[in-house]
Amino acid sequence: MASQVIKKDGTKQDFDPEKIRRAIGLAAEQAGLSEERKNQVVEQVATAAIQLADTKEEIATSEIKEKILSELDNIEPSVSSVWREYRK
Predict the structure, then answer these.
(1) What pLDDT is recorded for position 62?
(2) Residues 44, 45, 47, CA angle at the centre, nearest 5°?
(3) CA 51, CA 43: separation in Å to the nearest integer?
(4) pTM score, whole prediction
(5) What phi and psi values does residue 60 have, to the nearest 5 degrees?
(6) How many C-alpha atoms does 4 have within 13 Å on its Cβ side?
(7) Which distant-in-sequence residues (6+ apart) come within 8 Å of 85 by Cβ?
(8) Would you report the helix, strand and coil content of the chain in percent, each value rounded to 5?
(9) In angstroms, rounded to a whole number, what is the distance separating the alpha carbons of residues 76 and 6?
């Protein structure tokens, strides 16, 4: 599993899968999903992003973001829309 995340400014930070879950959960909440659906989306998307990180020593935040958005576009576009709006 990636032990480090490379941020946009080039700094490195410890990889924290919970940060991914929290971010997806917040976007799902803002998109108005039910608690049950929010939990499903968080689990499915976070698992995909964490699996991507498992294949690398270090991973860029941009790679994680791309994976998350790709998954959200497929399973819950309303959440990917909220995510994109927040990141602007």
Answers:
(1) 94
(2) 70
(3) 12
(4) 0.91
(5) -80, 145
(6) 9
(7) none
(8) 70, 10, 20
(9) 27
Q: Which of 39, 16, 22 is nearest to 76 (CA)?
A: 39
- Give me 5's structure tokens: 């995340």
Pairing assessment for the beta strands 58-60 and 4-6 based on DSSP bridges: parallel
Tokens 């998954």, residue?
71
pLDDT (0 to 100) of residue 86:
82
Residue 67 has pLDDT above 80, yes or no: yes
- 71, 45 Cβ separation under 8 angstroms: yes
Query: For 20-25, what is the mean pLDDT?
Result: 95
Beta strand residue intervals within the chain, DSSP E? 4-6, 12-14, 58-60
User: What gap in Å lies between CA 88 and CA 82, rounded to an integer?
Assistant: 10
